[in-house]
UniProtKB/TrEMBL annotation:
SUPFAM superfamilies: lambda repressor-like DNA-binding domains. This is Helix-turn-helix transcriptional regulator. Residues 18-73 form the HTH cro/C1-type domain. Coiled coil: none annotated.
Amino acid sequence: MASSVNPTVRRRRLGQELRKLRELKGMTAEEVAERLLVSQSKISRLENGRRSISQRDVRDLCGVYGVEDHRIVDSLMQMAKESRQQGWWHAFGDIPYSVYIGLETDASSLRIYEASLVPGLLQTQGYAGAVTEGSWPEATAAEVERRVQVRMRRQERITDPDNPLRLWAVIDESALRRIVGNRSIMCEQLEHLVEFSLRPHITVQVLPYDVGAHPGMYGKFCILEFQDPQDASTVYLEGITSDLYLEKPNDVQAYSVMYEHLRMQALNAEHSRQFMLRIADEYRRSDPNASAR
């Protein structure tokens, strides 16, 4: 059974503590790698929380940094142990964006810009299935179903009655116009967006075609923020074979400024709802199977 401990967050915090110890020692990652006969990239991945870290790694690093306080060593060793436990997503097998899921699960707020798709946290099951089939044409039916189940499970973060994720989504009009699956699926998806946008912790804005050029034309991104001040805000950029996580303050600031421009150029929340309902009505009227709706 998956543990309630978030292993992604544990790795991230452990990496931050190890980086602090290295900097206090005045050593570079390259120097540490030479001492331990490992690659510099391994040290970097351990510090940024992208690689699983063992208690042996912690022990060796504490030795290099001359950490003599057993309480510190024991605390770091416990974090390493917890970082190797499994989050709920591991029950679904190999998920390529599992690091992101771990961060999303622990985030307190999320700002998303999507250029061609409805954000995963706001997708209906029908839309999610059609998106997965279309974007992963070689997947088996079982693999598609597994991906959809993970997406539906992720959505519990925005429906949690006690601690819902604060979600702000700016969606390009093209994501609403692209017929994913069929018109019936799109109509249901748009009505779902409108319904969820009425929740106090969810804001949905549409960026219409007529705004012209805008800062999001280079592609989608999201900004994750966390309750614990130890956890730095992170910009997530999704790739085909690998993802990019930006945590440097200057990078996060640059994307935050970009997001503010997108929010200002997009329709406000109420006008966005009206816009989505008009498109949903267009789908309904042009759907030959919609007579029963």
